[in-house]
Amino acid sequence: MGYVLFLDDMDVFTIISHLKKKNELSEQNKRITEELTKTKSTLLRLDSLTYYEEYARSKKFYKKENEDIFVIIPKD
Fold first, then answer.
1. Read out DSSP for 14-64?
2. The predicted structure's pLDDT at residue 26
3. What's the pLDDT at 35?
4. 46 Cβ partners below 8 Å, 6+ apart?
5. Is the residue at 44 inside a domain?
6. What pLDDT sits at residue 52?
7. Closest CA to 42 of 32, 51, 33
8. Measured in whole angstroms, how far is the alpha carbon of residue 76 from the centre of its chain?
9. Which tens digits make up the pLDDT trace of 16-73?
10. How many domains does the chain have?
11. 65 in helix, strand or coil?
12. Whose C-alpha in 1, 35, 56, 58 is 20 to 30 A from the C-alpha of 8?
């Protein structure tokens, strides 16, 4: 009675490692796809002048003539 041992590049540990890497890449692909969708949406909004005004007023605190802006920062 004899035993034969076959050695191969694809052992159980390599297969598990590849499956884990595949799952990580799949999750990364989902995140990037969501970011791409958001970016495309933003690019479509950039065609309108109202978006620029809204951005400038909310993020950069620009104001119109005869207008005062008050910034309220809550305490932690």
1. HHHHHHHHHHHHHHHHHHHHHHHHHHHHHHHHTTSHHHHHHHHHHHS----
2. 98
3. 97
4. 52
5. yes
6. 79
7. 51
8. 28
9. 999 999 999 999 999 999 999 999 988 888 777 788 777 777 777 777 778 777 778 8
10. 1
11. coil
12. 1
In a domain, 73, yes or no: no
Backbone Cα Rg of the chain = 28
What six digits make up the tokens of 27? 């999750």
Closest by CA position to 58, among listed 50, 38, 48, 66: 50
| Inter-residue contact 45 to 51 (CB < 8 Å) | yes
Tokens found for residue 73: 């920062």
Look at residue 18 and tell me if it is in a domain.
Answer: no
**Is-contact 25 19, C-beta < 8 A?**
no
**Domain span holding position 53:** 33-58
Residue with tokens 């890497």: 21
1-13 exposure pattern, b = at least 16 Cβ within 10 A, e = fewer:
eeeeeeeeeeeee
Polymer length of the chain: 76
Both tokens assigned to 21: 């890497």
